Amino acid sequence: MTTESTAPVTDPTRVLVLNSGSSSVKYQLLDMRDGARLAVGLVERIGEETSRLVHTPLTDGGGEKRERTAPVADHAAALKAVAEELAADGLGLDSPELAAIGHRVVHGGLRFSAPTVIDDDVLAEVERLVPVAPLHNPANITGIRTARALRPDLPQVAVFDTAFHTTMPEYAARYAIDTETADAHRIRRYGFHGTSHAYVSRRVAGLLGKDPSEVNVIVLHLGNGASASAVAGGRCVDTSMGLTPLEGLVMGTRSGDVDPAVVFHLERVAGMSSDEIDVLLNKKSGLVGLCGDNDMREIRRRIDEGDERARLAFDIYIHRLKKYIGAYYAVLGRVDAVAFTAGVGENAAPVREAAVAGLEELGLAVDAGLNAVRSPEPRLISPGYARVAVAVVPTDEELEIAQQTYSLVTSPAH
Ligand code: AMP
């Protein structure tokens, strides 16, 4: 990297956030002086003939969305294409204004309870966690390796989906199975979506005019994947996902909680292999398994037309959600707020209404008028008299990753 001798010397303030999936890379470039997005985009179907890159520059009021449809062979080619698009907007990865790259990493196990500057040792530990996150960590590792090769001199930070949940007490994190077996295979509840739960629980405290340490919050992250968490004074004390993201709520394509004996039953009676059952429970269950659709908009449309399967799927989804609200109410003892977030939580007013219906004795209620308002801003939807605030807080995992990354690389200890 070279800097023109005449260029003004400025502290780098930009962070590139990378979210690398098995066949996609999502990215955002943010300016940390005000959290503004400078560019956003994604490369999808990496490794296929039909790869696509969509890039949107957002500087100076925003530019035209650009699309490339040439095949992208692998993550290295994807990142190179992203770097070219950014460079075309004067935002290249070689810019002295780039402070760091923040990587979303799904599984950080027990070791990583905070964002961590990536070195070979950190990367090796993320690799050791592949057996407990076979679907996610390999793609995250590929993204990190590729970005490090491109900018070996730049600090790169891993922000773990599991980190926020490492404060869970042992009695919430352990399954009641033989301790030696559990420890030998690192079987315990880790939880996921932690970056979102951290961001939303903090924002909801702000909405109530309080410090996060003063409030107890139930966060309901309802996207295609879905999880609930109980957050006491800013610390997670329980969460619905477990060893993997399969446990807990009914999701778009995942079953959430089932009797573990369903697995042996399918093996013994239906002759299914564990890989087939894995696919069944992760990809063909949840809303899609129940009614054939995992998009809540489509399910609501079908319900409005009198479709019974869609109605039952919705009722099963809501019943599970309610059980977790009740459980986490009991875990927390006192609840100041319930916050809805992610695609369904932010947009589906009927889900919010149904999840809270009948819980007036717990101090929970939704104001129909406020619930119907569509807005990208965090907001309260409970009536003034309700003891517990009900909030909609749009999640922003990229901003949270960028903030954690930036504060780590600019901290005096770094
Ligand atoms: P996410 O994983 O957070 O991106 O959420 C994706 C899911 O949000 C989709 O599968 C839909 O079920 C849901 N969703 C998105 N927009 C809406 C909407 N306007 N109304 C209801 N559900 C929505």
- Count of DSSP-assigned helices: 15
Please identify, by name, the CATH architecture of the largest domain. 2-Layer Sandwich
Strand content: 15-25%
Mean pLDDT comes to: 94
Give the SSE order as H and E letters.
EEEEEHEEHHEHHHEEEHHHHHEHHHEEH
Give helix % range: 25-40%
CATH topology tier name of the largest domain: Nucleotidyltransferase, domain 5
Low-pLDDT regions: 1-5
Q: What profile does the largest beta sheet have?
A: 8 strands, mixed
Distance between the termini: 21 Å
Total strands: the figure is: 14
Number of folding domains?
2
Strand order of the largest sheet: 5-4-3-2-1-6-8-7
Top CATH class of the largest domain: Alpha Beta
The whole-angstrom Rg is 22 Å
Bulk shape: globular
List the ligand species: adenosine monophosphate
What is the structural class? alpha/beta
Quick recap:
The chain has helices spanning 75-88, 120-128, 137-150, 170-173, 179-184, 194-207, 261-268, 274-283, 286-291, 296-304, 308-332, 342-347, 349-356, 368-372, 397-409, and strands spanning 14-20, 25-31, 36-44, 52-57, 66-68, 98-105, 116-117, 156-160, 216-222, 226-232, 235-239, 337-341, 379-380, 389-392.
Q: Can you tag this structure with a few keywords?
A:
six-stranded mixed sheet, Nucleotidyltransferase, domain 5, 15 helices, binds adenosine monophosphate, alpha/beta, about 425 residues
